[in-house]
Each structure stands twice: as structure tokens, then as C-alpha cells.
Amino acid sequence: MEKVKRVLITGITGFAGSHLAEYIMENHPDVEIFGTKRYRSNTENITEEVRDKVQWFHDVDYTDNEAVRWLIDATCPDRVFHLSANSFVPASWKSPSEVLNNNIISQVNIFDALLRNNFDYYKPRVQIACSSEEYGHVLPNECPIKESNDLRPLSPYGVSKVAQDMLGYQYFKSYGLHVVRTRAFNHTGARRGHVFVCSTFAKQIAEIEAGLKEPVVYVGNLEAVRDFTDVRDTVRGYWNALEYGAPGDVYNIGTGVGYTMSWVLETLISMSNRNIRIGVDSERQRPSDVPRLICDASKFKEQCKWKPKYKLEETLQWLLDYWRAKIK
To answer: pTM (2 decimals)?
Structure first.
């Protein structure tokens, strides 16, 4: 196995990025970690241990080609985990041009910078964090979803991820760039932003327990079915994708088990001793929602030596306890 010396994590202050940094520190302590963030990013996800370990911790606008070229020239990473993106699906309907521009152009700039950096001798590997949202409108007979399934995105975010995905394939075929594309299904856990479904449920319950709000959890569509993976399993999958995945290929990451949002909510409520009611908030409804996303990760499990370790109940308890500690 080729020795990894230097890793660049784009979006290191984000949910997955911060957990990936911790995974690398714990399991590959000799690897140098370089991290970047957007200037407005909240850095509270970064622990002191990670901050001390990360070699660079810079604000980078990935839509700025020159800034990205400078970053790649300065760090020369063996591995790039490209996690930075506008990733909140509902927001993509409000500002589709911003999401499309940021997610697509940022990736093109990273690819071009890597190719210009003495590419004949320097052969970095790049993991692109794509998304199950690319599958979009999934037919009843198409679950669990394989990588070969048609892509029918139902949001501007999903469209942006399809573009990132296809660009990864194109740069591999056109230039030989070692790109591995991962389509992660929903992942959750501590530090997940409060706008995401499991977190918004857990945060509201923690606020109720702290006496900060009425005993009502407000929800959107509870009939949607999702495949949730613990973020610690997901980032381990990202690492394995570059260790064992075939360049140019694409892999689903998920558990293969679907849960309704109502099950997730009821499970979280059962972890509280409060009498909590449920209220519907029309503002939490999407213009078009993907009804059912369940992963077939058999290809990834076989080729990349991965399987999930955590049960969803464990992950939800971890998430709720995180919000309890944060709300205090």
C-alpha cells in the first residue's frame, strides 16, 4: 500500500470534515493534515487536538482559481478529500445559481490546480463527496439503489452533485486524474447542523428538556424514507475509498436499511422523559422531495473493505446527547 504523507481536507470545519480529521489523527497519526474552510465558517467543530495537528487552517474561496492554485502548490497533498460544498438541500431552491456555481466551479479549480502541479510526476488521489441526492426520483422497484441506477435529481443541489460526479469521471478519462467518487447516503451524528432533519429533531427535544420551548417538535414530511449512516462510519469509508477504490469508479456508502422520518422522530422522543407532541410546519416542506432512498453498498463493502459499525439508535443517542450538552 502506497504510504500517505500529506492529506488536504477541504471543508475541514464542516460536519464530515471535522470527523474525518479526527479519524485520520486516531488511525494514521503520521499523516500531515492540511485543512481549509470558507471565511464565514464556524470553527466550533474543530477540537483543540485537531487544531494543533492541522498544519494549515486557511480561508480559501474555491471559486477563485488563483487561490486554489496557490493552495495546491503550497501543500502538494498525496490525498485530497473534497468535502467543501453548499450542502443544505432546501437552500438550493432559494439560491440555485449560488449552489451550482460554488459546487461545480470549486471542483474544476481543484482539478485544474492538481493537473498543473507537475502532474507527470505527482500523482495525487482525490475523493469527491457526491450524494445520494443525485438519484432523485427513485422508482419503487429500484430500491435498494445501485450505482448503475439512473440519476434523476429533484433539487438544484442534486443537479450540482451530478455535475461534480460526472466531472470526476471526465477528468479521470481525459487526464488520468485518480478520482474516486463516493455517493454517500444520509449521514448523521454529533455536530450535524441544526437545519438537517435528525439534528433539528434532537435540538428541539433538547430545548424542550431545558425548558426553552413548548413541548412540541415541529416537522416537515415524516413519510420520506432514508438510509442513515453514522458519520464516523462514513468518513472511514471516505478514507477506504482512496485506499482501495478503483480510479474513475463510483461507490455508494450506506447501510442498506431505510427508516421513515416518523421512526427517527419517535426513537428520539423515546429517549426523553418529557411528554412531547408533534406539530407540522409547512415551511419545512420541500417543493419536491425524494420519497425513498435506500442504499445498495455491496460493491463498496466488497472492494473497499468497509462495513458500518454503528446502529442508528446508537447514533441518535449520541446526537441527542450532543445537543443536550450544547443547549445547557
So the answer is: 0.94
